[in-house]
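Our consortium's second objective concerns turning raw sequence data into structural hypotheses that experimental partners can test. To show how far this objective has progressed, the report includes one record in full. It was chosen at random from the queue rather than selected for favorable results. The single chain below, 203 residues long, was entered without modification.
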Amino acid sequence: MTRKNITDEFMLRSVANFAMDNIGNLVSINNIANTMINDGRNINVRTVEKYLEGFTESFFLYRATRYDIKRKQYLKTGEKYYVSDLGLRYFILGRKIGDYGHVLENIVFLELLRRGYDVFVGKVDEFEVDFVAVNNNGKLYVQVAETLKGTDQNDGKLYEREIKSLRKIDDNYEKLILTADKIPLGNDEGIKIRNVLDWLLDK
C-alpha cells in the first residue's frame, strides 16, 4: 500500500472483493469503476487501475488479456482476472451457489501457468475460448465446463455451446475440453474431452 501510495483501505478491499467475485468473467477497468460508482462508492477509473496493478504485481491476482485467434492479435478491450489463492477467496467471500464453474476455470488457469504456459482469453468470431495457452512448443486451446450434460440424455445444448468455439479454430494445435463429468469421454473431430481431475493429475 505504501509503494502505490494507497490510503483508502476500504476502497482497496472493495476492488479486491469485486475482482475475486468475478473470476472468469470478462471485465474492464471502466466496468469495475462504473459498477462501484453505481453502488455508491466514490472511486474513479485511474484508482481502480492502480489497485489492480498493485494486485497483479503482488501476484494476488492474475490478469488474462484477450487474443483474437483468427486475426492473431491481442485485443485492448476486456480481460479476465483470476485469484492466486482460492482458499483466501473462500475465507473472504464464502462459498456461493453456482460458483463452481468459475472456480474450476480458475484452477485450470493456475495449472496452465504452473506448466509453463502464457495464458490468454481467446476470441474466435463472436465466440469465446476460455484459454489460449502458449509456450515454445506452440498453442493449446482449452474450454472449461462444469458439465457437458443437459437436462436429459437427449439434450445436447450444453455440449454444443462448449464445443462450437473450438470447432471454429482452423489450425492444427491441440484443442481440449475439461469437464467435471466422470463419464467416459474421448474426442470429437480431434477435440479431446477429458475429466478435469484426470488432467490435473497428469505428470
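The partners drew two points from this record. Residues 60-200 form one domain. The first helix runs from residue 9 to 21. Both points have been shared with the crystallography group to help prioritize constructs.
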